[in-house]
Amino acid sequence: MGKRFLIDTNVIIDYTSNLLPDQGIVFVEHIFSTDFITSVIVKIEALGYSEPLPEKMQLLAEFINHASILPLDDAITLKTIDLRKSKKIKLGDAIIAATALVHNLILISRNTADFINIEGLDIIDPHNM
Questions:
Q1: How many CA atoms lie within 13 A of 107 on its CB side?
Q2: Model confidence pTM above 0.85
Q3: CB 37 within 8 A of CB 67
Q4: Distance CA 62, CA 77 (A)
Q5: How many angstroms separate the CA atoms of 54 and 41, rounded?
Q6: Which of 3-7, 51-55, 78-82, 115-119 has the least mean pLDDT?
Q7: Distances from the Cα of 10 to the Cαs of 42, 74, 121, in angstroms?
Q8: Which of 12, 20, 114, 115: disulfide with 24, CB 3.0–4.6 Å?
Q9: 23 near 15, Cβ under 8 Å?
Q10: What distance in Å separates the CA atoms of residue 120 and residue 105, rounded to the nearest whole number?
Q11: What is the per-residue pLDDT for 51?
Q12: What is the pLDDT of residues 86-113, one digit of tens each?
């Protein structure tokens, strides 16, 4: 089995807002068309995004509906607790990182600094490809 990826909220928002560079677009479109995986926290963040345009929110909702959403389970909860105890990291970011680690996924995110020094976490920034 090849590499598998977990898509972060900012990548979904950047993609649906046409903010990714050309190489980033090609990369994430391939992921979206083959194995679009994200976390329940990403769904919450994306659909809770404060966007004044209703059509943009509808686009985000339709887009998220195409993803395989990984739930918050005991393994992710315990890994999130470990991360929060050992690193200064926001809860949402800790859940996203824990989800990627537990499921052995490469995280795709623009905010690489949010996930710095998390042992075992591989991350790709589609803005810097």
A1: 29
A2: yes
A3: yes
A4: 27
A5: 21
A6: 51-55
A7: 9, 25, 18
A8: 20
A9: no
A10: 10
A11: 67
A12: 999 999 999 999 999 999 999 999 999 9
Q: Which two tokens stand for residue 65?
A: 């509906």
Q: Residue 74 to residues 81, 98, 119: CA-CA distances in angstroms?
A: 10, 11, 20
Tokens 């470990």 found at: 82
Q: Which of 35, 38, 33 is nearest to 11 (CA)?
A: 38
Q: How many CB atoms lie within 10 A of CB 61?
A: 12
Q: What's the confidence (pLDDT) of residue 76?
A: 98
Domain edges within the chain: 5-119
Residue type, 71: P
The token duo for 64 is 């998220």
| CA–CA gap between residue 37 and residue 35 (Å, rounded) | 6
Give DSSP secondary structure letters for the chain. ----EEE-HHHHHHHHTT-S-HHHHHHHHHHHHH--EEEHHHHHHHHT---S-HHHHHHHHHHHTTSEEEP--HHHHHHHHHHHHHS---HHHHHHHHHHHHTT-EEE-S-GGGGTT-TT--EE-TT--
Largest Cα separation within the chain, whole Å, is 41
